[in-house]
Amino acid sequence: MIKLGADSVEMREMSDDDIFSSRLKLLIIMIKAYLKDCPLGNYRKQAIIENANQVFYHSLQLVSESSSLKDHGIDVQTDIVSGEKISAEHMFHQRVKLLAVMAKAIAEDRSMGSFREKAITDNLNKICETLIFNFQVRDVDFLKVA
Amino acid sequence: MSQVSIPNIKIAVIDDDLLVRDFMVTVLMYCVNRDVLSFDNGLAAWRYIEDHESPDIIISEIDVPGLNGFELMAKFKEKSPDKKCLLMSANPSNEQPARNSGADAFLAKPVTVNDLFSVVETFVVKG
Asked: What is the mean pLDDT of each run of 10 residues along chain B (127 residues)?
């Protein structure tokens, strides 16, 4: 029997944040694979759309929770440091939402010029920098076949 | 050019946590580019397996209603001894019983995208 997953001392139920973070990483892998010309079959397209919808929805929730804090008088932007943090978080979630929209466009075979590809790559790079996430499509052979 | 191939494979995921189940289905469907079955309890999965050709791989949470993961695996392995059963759990005390009862793999929660990629590389991909 092989064992995969968490170390025994770190085992626990998966939280909403675990799922969101994993889905976001999957979305990044999906788009990187597309940019590297990995083939997209119908089920892969379906998986991209489902994943993009989930990431978009979750990101929307996080943004509205942050706004709701402010609506309840919790003004975390009273000092410059937290103001910058909120702004960076807000931008990150906007980039994630944009990435989800871009992924859906890919899966729906929308036309993709070189500027759109560049915009996708730039957005992807910014998100990966924030997450400190480095994934190489070349390391996963099965993504190159469908 | 890559030498690997993905066979026409049927995978079933059993977990009563909708978010986990849907996440796993999305990752696996993307990896293998095939439909992936999902069930929220062991009994529903077993009823499907009894009435249809067995999936090639089942990935079941141990603590699910109906039939638990161990019970489902016992029935599944009796019907289809050559097919693969992977058990998953958030409880470390389930690892040794999973090993003793003949599971092909134990997935310790929280599982990551990379863990599921490893499942595909180990149990699905040819070449």
From this structure: 82 97 97 96 97 96 97 97 97 97 97 96 88
With both helix axes pointing from N to C terminus, report the angle between A42-71 and B18-32 in degrees, rounded to the nearest 10.
140
Model pTM score: 0.89
Kindly provide the ipTM of the predicted complex, given to two decimals.
0.91
Find, among B30, B50, B48, the residue nearest to B39 by Cα: B48
Instruction: Select from B57, B55, B53, B59 the least CA-distant residue to B14.
Output: B59
Interface-testing mutation among A12, A43, A44, A61, with chain B (most B C-beta atoms within 10 A): A43
Q: Which domains, from first to last, does chain B contain?
A: 11-121 (3.40.50.2300)
Which residues of chain B make contact with A41, given a CB cutoff of 8 A?
A: 33
Sign of the C-alpha dihedral computed for residues A97, A98, A103 and A105 taken in this order:
positive
Cβ neighbors of A26 (< 8 A, separation 6 or more) are A51, B26, B27, B30, B113
A65: tokens are 């929770």
